[in-house]
Amino acid sequence: MSPTSPNAGNGTTSTPGTAMGSSASGSTGSFASTSDSDMSLDDTTLGSSGSRPASGSLKSNLGQAGSHLKQAAGHAGTAIKGAASAAGDEMRLGRANVKSELAESALSGIAAAEVATAAGREQVDALMDKGRDLLESASELIRERPLASFGVAFATGWIIAKLARSGDK
What we know:
Elements: H1 29-32, H2 54-144, H3 146-168
Helix pairs in contact: 2-3
């Protein structure tokens, strides 16, 4: 056996002539200066020489670890439920905002269409008025000078016919 025990990594040393089971506090030598998480395989061979056996300590530590895991899982579940609830609230708020924006854009589109329709009607009315005025002035001109109007119409027809024949050749 070497001058140090297999527990050399945890800060305790023992020499071949030293008893490991005696301590002023009544606990095992390797447990006196180490934490519960530093246990090695040699600690389980100590048996009942200390105040509590190593297997009982291991069971106790595992029990505590299990209860801490249960608590952590419960807290994680609560956090996830809270996050899901907050996400749901944000989704509802976002949906309401989208609906509101769509409604406003639809109303703006309808208003723009109404304005465009009104402007189109005004343009059509203005063109119809100009057309009526042109027809009235043409009919007055024909009533005042019927022979001149007939001559202009005849000359216009003759020119159009001449142009149409020359385009065929």
